[in-house]
Specification:
By secondary structure, this protein is an alpha/beta fold. It contains 5 helices and 5 strands; from the N terminus they run E-H-E-H-E-H-E-H-E-H. This is Histidine kinase.
Length: 126
């Protein structure tokens, strides 16, 4: 399974990448919103882990654009943890919202759940 991880914080990016690789996932990384869209298009990941506070395009806009193209599960991993932020994440099409700092076990559990029940693939209009 391929996971795209998007975060501009190198420490978080490195941690998440190491954990996911340890658990057998193929990991693709991006450091800003535009790179995230490019990587999602070229790598066709099975899941996207996405920060909200990104340069170029914020994570909510990246999520909206990805979801407009195809129904890949998106987990927003962010310091934005207010009720309004969580609602905005769901409005953008995110499948889950996990606040930072986060517990690795909980993170992995959410990844497994999202991968076990992927969203149906959107079909292009006829």
């Amino acid at each position: 399974m391929r996971i795209l991880v998007v975060d501009d914080n190198r420490d978080i990016l490195d941690l998440v990448q190491r954990v996911l690789i340890t658990y057998g996932y193929d990991v693709v990384i991006a450091r800003d919103g535009m790179e995230a869209l490019q990587q999602e298009t070229t790598s066709q990941p099975d899941l996207v882990v996405l920060d909200v506070n990104l340069p170029m395009l914020d994570g909510w806009e990246v999520c909206r654009r990805i979801k407009a193209r195809r129904a890949v599960p998106v987990l927003l991993l962010t310091v934005r943890a207010e009720r309004a932020d969580i609602e905005r994440s769901h409005e953008a099409g995110a499948d889950d919202h996990l606040p930072k700092p986060f517990d690795i076990t909980e993170f992995l559990g959410r990844i497994k759940k999202l991968l076990a029940h992927p969203a149906p693939t959107l079909l292009p209009p006829a």
